[in-house]
Amino acid sequence: MTTLYPQVVSCVICGAENECTFLGSTNSFGSPDLDYRPAGMARYTLIYEVQTCVNCGFSAPAISDDFKEYLTKIKTGQKEQLNKIKEIIASKEYKELLNNEFFPDFSNSFLASSCILEKIGNYNSAFFMAMKSAWIADDNDNINAAQYSRNKALKLLDRTTDDFIDNSTRLLLKIELLRRTARFEEAEKLINQALIELQSDENATQLITYQNRLIYKKDTAVHKIDEGMMV
Ligand SMILES: [Zn+2]
Questions:
Q1: Cα of 49 from ligand 1 centre, angstroms
Q2: 68, 12 in Cβ contact below 8 A?
Q3: For residue 27, what pLDDT is reported?
Q4: Could you read off the pLDDT of 18-29 as tens digits, one per residue?
Q5: What is the rounded CA–CA span in Å between residue 57 and residue 112?
Q6: Cα of 13 to ligand 1 centre, how many Å?
Q7: Ligand 1 center to 82 CA (angstroms)
Q8: C-alpha 20 to ligand 1 mean position (Å)
Q9: pTM for the complete prediction?
């Protein structure tokens, strides 16, 4: 059961009040996709995982004071980061990103949030927001938005930290992102590298073999981890 509740929060950037919907709980029973998109209800609650201020356009996983958990732990650094965000959201580039009429609205919010997080050096969260943009784009059958988001995620993935994504998961994710964006040649190269690097990991090897098969068929569709483990 998914529970939602509304709450009025003040934007940490401009102070404006926003009525946001929060996710109390959800579930993710079943196999995730090859790119770790969760199954179950959690698959469909993405739109509650980004907020955009109605006044200044600040987009983030949380636009209230709670956003501070995405900033550096150093107090003086936090102030600098918040000032930097003010500059970013005032820029033409940011406004265009947030209001791209060719992409789904929620993809735009996730991409805008990803852009801010990247610019303040939080690559882990920036990566995750780009992935969520891709999933929204998938749900809206918007191929261009999905490709753009996945290419963005691929670039950010290299900058994520090992405590966020371990090395073997990062490699598997890279192969998956390359396959989903039809960058088959690059995916094949990485498969050869991964088969050597992860040869002692049985599950990883099975997934890489499955990816190899999908890439051979030039398959760019969504598939579940379970499917890869069953072949
Ligand atoms: Zn605001």
A1: 17
A2: yes
A3: 87
A4: 999 999 888 888
A5: 9
A6: 5
A7: 12
A8: 13
A9: 0.96
In the reported structure, the alpha carbon of residue 94 is separated from the centroid of ligand 1 by a whole-number distance in angstroms of: 14
Q: Given this model, what pLDDT does residue 1 score? A: 76
Cα of 18 from ligand 1 centre, angstroms: 8
Task: For 71-82, write each residue's pLDDT tens digit.
Answer: 999 989 999 999
CB 52 within 8 A of CB 59: yes
DSSP 48: G
Q: Is the pLDDT of residue 231 over 80?
A: no
Q: Which range among 18-22, 26-30, 192-196, 220-224 shows the weakest confidence by mean pLDDT?
A: 26-30
pLDDT confidence of residue 200: 95
C-alpha torsion sign, points 117, 118, 122, 124:
positive
Ligand 1 centre and the CA of 76: distance in Å?
A: 21
- Ligand 1 ion: residues within 5 Å (CB): 11, 13-14, 16, 53, 55-56, 58
For ligand 1, the distance from its centroid to the CA atom of residue 155, given in whole angstroms, is 28
Cα separation values, 161 from 60, 69, 132, 194, Å: 20, 17, 19, 19
Report the DSSP pairing between strands 59-60 and 51-52: antiparallel
Q: Are 71 and 81 in contact (CB under 8 A)?
A: yes
Amino acid at 77: G
